[in-house]
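Sequence in, structure out.
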Amino acid sequence: MNEAIRWCRGETRLGSVRIAARGDAVIGLWFEGQKHDVRPGGGWQEARDDPLLREAAHQLRDYLAGKRESFDLALAPEGTAFQKSVWRAIAKVPAGRTASYGDLARRIGRPSSVRAVGAAVGRNPLSVVVPCHRIVGSDGSLTGYAGGLERKRALLALERVDLDASRDAVADRTASAR
């Protein structure tokens, strides 16, 4: 993995983002200043005209305009095997729906690893693209989001998530899992 990381910055209605790619895959999309934000360093090359980065920015703009519900990009987030399993589970939560950390833990076959799942969700390097904003507390409440709770609310509102109904659905799933 000695290949340089290409990156660009973009503006969205939710703030500035940094998008990064290595080879033919997107490896990160962060809101600038978010928790666990990765900043360009050695081995990073700014590439404003990179076709993959432009496409990722275009798809993000379409998503934020309500024109798409998911992304069609090659992704290669960097993390541990456990983190990647959590991120794959997050990616399966459809637009307009939510899941709890406990739901994710069960989906990956690690029902007692809810805290570790929470930590992996917080380290998701592909904000919005891997929709960790759809992950809520066991009672359906909004919990931490690396990009900030206001952005999480905005993203869920964009997807027309009824937070009260979401809270009820998560509570029902939790009760039936017992």
